[in-house]
Amino acid sequence: MKRQSREINVFSMSALDLFASALGAIILVMIILFPYYLNVSPIDPSDLYDQLQIAEKKNKDLEEQNKELEKQAKATYLLITLSWNSSPDIDLYVRDPNGNLFNYSRHNRVEAGASARPHFPNSAAELSEDATRGPASEIWVTPKAETGKYEVYYHYYTNGSTPVVLQGRIFHSNGIDKLPPVTLRGRANAPGLHAATIHVNDEGDVRVDSHL
Q1: Which residue windows are transmembrane per the record (predicted)?
Q2: What is the pLDDT of residues 21-37, one digit of tens each?
Q3: Which end of the chain is more exposed for a tag (fewer CB within 10 A), N or C?
Q4: Which residue, among 99, 59, 89, 56, has the nearest Cα to 186 in the 3D structure?
Q5: Looking at residue 63, what is its pLDDT?
Q6: Dist CA 185 CA 162 (whole Å)
Q7: Inter-residue contact 139 to 172 (CB < 8 Å)
Q8: What residues does each domain of the chain span?
Q9: pTM of the entire structure?
Q10: 160 backbone dihedrals φ, ψ, rounded to 5°
Q11: Angle at 135 between CA 107 and CA 182, to 5 degrees
Q12: Alpha-carbon distance values, 27 to 24, 34, 67, 144, 193 (Å)
């Protein structure tokens, strides 16, 4: 009868020792760190709620900023010119949606070195060119037109009855509107002849209604 082998494989025993040592090391580390696990504070639901509120506020602020950027992108400029070909003094009047009436005395310009304040501090518009004798042109401009109606007037300022032919043009993001020529023959009460109404909508589109 053949005797069974009682030899123990050295490699197998070494591997077993290695695994046992590794397991023992892991258990030892867990025992050492166990008190720290007990000291971890549970998550407070109120903290989560506060963080959620902060995130929602940031999201709302971003939405408002996006709306403002969209509004700025849709904004249009307005530039109104009035030209004439003879000597009388003609004035351009423009009333904006806020009721500000721009003219030669309330032009909203701040001259270089001048201490005077703008006539309409909340408006970027101005009567940038004012002439006192023709042939000449007057110009009213705003870099960003507010939504609403703008009223345009021609005023014959000079005493007398010299006829003068007036030509108005309105420039904006959608193009140019040329108003029909009109002849004035004498001084009238300010603001004078109602030449046009300009409509600016929320999308920045412009429509011009001529009254000539």
Answers
A1: 12-38
A2: 777 777 777 777 666 65
A3: N
A4: 89
A5: 81
A6: 6
A7: no
A8: 11-37+51-72, 76-210
A9: 0.66
A10: 130, -175
A11: 85
A12: 5, 10, 59, 73, 97
Selection from 106, 101, 173 nearest residue 143 by Cα = 173
State the pLDDT at residue 186: 84
Residue (of 96, 159, 107) closest to 130 by Cα position: 107
Sign of the CA dihedral running 101, 77, 204, 155: positive
97-146 residue pLDDT tens: 999 999 999 999 877 655 567 889 999 999 998 888 889 999 999 999 99
- Choose the weakest-confidence range: 8-12, 88-92, 191-195: 8-12
Is a pLDDT exceeding 70 seen at residue 42? no
Of 57, 86, 64, the closest CA to residue 161 belongs to 86
Residue 165's nearest CA partner among 210, 135, 144 is: 135
